[in-house]
Amino acid sequence: MTEPLVGFERGDGNMVSENFLAPAKEYASAGLNEWRRRKVSGEKSQPSCPPLRQQSFSSDFGHAAAETYLITRLSFKLLSYLGVGYRWMTRLFTLGCYALLLMPGFLQVGYYYYFSSQVRRSVVYGDQPRNRLDLYLPKNSNGQKPVLIFVTGGAWIIGYKAWGSLLGKQLAERDIIVACLDYRNFPQGTISDMVEDVSQGIAFVCSHIAEYEGDPSRVYLMGQSAGAHISACALVQQAIKESEGKNVSWPVSQINSYFGVSGGYNLFGLVDHFHNRGLYRSIFLSIMEGEKSLGNFSPEVIVKEKYARKAICLLPPIILFHGTSDKSIPWNSSKDFVDALRGVNADAELVLYDGKTHTDLFLQDPLRGGKDELFDRIVAVIHAGDVESVAIGSPRRRLVPEILLKLAREISPF
């Protein structure tokens, strides 16, 4: 793994030269030893068939507590580098208020996440820390189901698989299996680690989803925000490897379509934007492994390169969704990527939502219930040609009162 820059400027202007990956490496070593222990003792990391309950609530709670401790420790470590200035304190406060306003919905989804027999939490897909995924399974078992692999956002720092629980719940009600991938976040890992984790998670789902009554021939990939960027990188990199005749862990042809929601696909145009939004240039470049690596992790730039031409025809249909009032990642990030894809004759489509913000598409609208154009479009693509499956499921119910949703939208820090 390429380590982040050892010396960089903090948000308060001071320089830091400590190796902040040391705690994460200790955790990684412990996780690897545990994995090796299970191999030696003959324990199986995956069930041969899906159990009614993957594990007890007490073991779930213990695992969640361990992950919470790790994430909290790394978060405070990160804050020590950022410097707790006025901008960060203000954003932290508004984030707390934002979460509090949406708490009625979060509590309902959280109850489903921890107590529903249709959720398989923390399925292990690799030997690295955070190599876990959650599976959301439909209630009926009348044959194999289409599968959506979802990569959550979180500014490459606070991404977590449970962020996809609302999407997983609602799509499972539409007879679709959802696999929400977790992956190493910064400072536990940098962008190449994140892309590697996501690619490994995709490979696991493609190879094992039949054990959970999923259809390996109907797999779809989706990412939101930073997750859209990471999953797009994984998809493009895999297509290039395949076009060069290299061994691949999963064939790009197994992905029927790619959905990107509110993502950024050209890092060169986002450095200054994120710096002004509070994700300081030094931190962002550390996440992306230095300024020289920006092009290597910019899908919009990669698809224009000569070495990628043979890979273009391998890419699945790509549909990008974005709100025109998105302040976190400007909507033209999606437009420019679609233009670049169309420029090399790839199958790409852009869907814009007038006046929608960064969180409207993924949080406020789903919590509002009722008709949702983005949700309905994804279901229609996955269940294309299957009228009965599209009609499955009752109308999505409201989880948060409208007044709270409007207040949350006004104070959202995203």
Number of E-type strands:
10
What is the SS-derived class? alpha/beta
In angstroms, what separates the terminal alpha carbons?
30 Å
Fraction in beta strands: 5-15%
* Major sheet size, sense and barrel closure: 8 strands, mixed
Radius of gyration: 20 Å
Secondary-structure element string = EEHHHHEEEHEHEHEHHHHEHEHHHH
Summed up, the helix count is 16
What percent of residues adopt helix (DSSP H or I)? Answer: 40-55%
Output mean pLDDT.
Answer: 84
- Quaternary state reads single chain
How is the largest sheet built, in terms of strand order?
A: 3-4-6-5-7-8-9-10
- Low-pLDDT parts are 1-54
Gross morphology is globular
Question: Could you explain how this protein is built, in words?
Answer:
This protein is an alpha/beta fold and 414 residues long. Helix content is 45%, strand content 14%. It has 16 helices and ten strands. The strands form two sheets. Strands 3-4-6-5-7-8-9-10 form an eight-stranded mixed beta sheet, with helices on both faces. Strands 1-2 form a two-stranded antiparallel ribbon. The protein is globular. The N terminus is likely disordered.
Outline of the structure:
With 414 residues, this protein is an alpha/beta fold. The chain has helices at 22-41, 57-82, 86-101, 103-115, 165-172, 191-208, 226-243, 271-277, 281-287, 299-302, 309-312, 332-343, 360-368, 373-382, 387-391, 402-411, and strands at 8-9, 15-16, 119-124, 132-136, 145-151, 177-181, 214-224, 255-261, 318-323, 348-353. 45% of the residues lie in helices and 14% in strands.
